[in-house]
């Protein structure tokens, strides 16, 4: 598969030995699919914006005491083309790309637009790892059976993942419908939320341990940008107050990577705004931090 050159790749890596496809463990790919955005549009520009912002992320991680990209290599491949593809066709395209990366022994990292894209990746991971569980950082449950008549809506993506039988641990939830709450109550073994109000009212170590304890190996991580508080990541499609802080999000991800085998992740739903790069830079830094954390 073609790898993008330095001026287009994630982190602006200059040495081909650390960004060539054949030499890299980690592969970043964009999925700029936006078809069902229900509030602020613009997430289709998110993947490109995150990659552009990553060029200003320091390659040395002071916490891990290393340049993480040198431990496995990070390749960036061209984004998917969703021309004339929506709903199932779009999801299938993502599934095909992800499955190819997995077949090549890669660690896939998807930068997505709307959250619908996660379904395609999870279908590929579920085929390879039948016991897969999923960690979702998000403001919203995304468990509606359909939204505005579309079962492939971004508001229904976790309902479709639930249909696959993949157990879900949802952290930071603070906006859901009555029907979503009912589905959660009727699925105690497969859907476990840690609500934002619980994050606020309990010691971090306590709710983090609960979330990790509910995850089985291996784990796929999906990070909706609005899972973080708007003070941390403001440029999102549907912002909600009282989200995770940077410290809380990293505390969770550190614990998950230390206790479980994370096999892939995505970052979705950033909708860039003019004259501000805070959101895309924060998410680029988060993705690079997560690359370092999974290197056990």
Write structural notes for this entry.
By secondary structure, this protein is of the alpha/beta class. The chain has one domain: 3-Layer(aba) Sandwich (Arginase, Chain A). It is 33% helix and 17% strand. It contains nine helices and ten strands. The protein has helices at residues 46-54, 88-103, 117-128, 157-163, 178-186, 196-201, 204-213, 246-259, 278-293; strands at 26-31, 60-61, 66-67, 74-77, 107-112, 133-137, 168-173, 191-195, 219-224, 262-268. Strands 4-1-5-10-9-6-7-8 form an eight-stranded parallel beta sheet, with helices on both faces. Helix 5 links the parallel strand 7 and strand 8. Helix 7 (204-213) crosses helix 8. The longest helix has 16 residues, at 88-103. The relative contact order is 0.17. The mean pLDDT is 97.
- Strand ordering within the main sheet: 4-1-5-10-9-6-7-8
Give the helix tally.
9
The CA-CA distance between the termini, in Å, is 26 Å
CATH architecture, by name, is 3-Layer(aba) Sandwich
CATH topology: Arginase, Chain A
DSSP helix fraction:
25-40%
What is the CATH domain class?
Alpha Beta
Spans of at least 5 consecutive residues whose pLDDT stays below 50 are none
CATH homologous superfamily heading: Ureohydrolase domain
The beta-strand count equals 10
Task: Indicate how many domains the architecture comprises.
Answer: 1
Main sheet: strands, sense, barrel: 8 strands, parallel
What characteristic shape results from the CA principal axes? globular
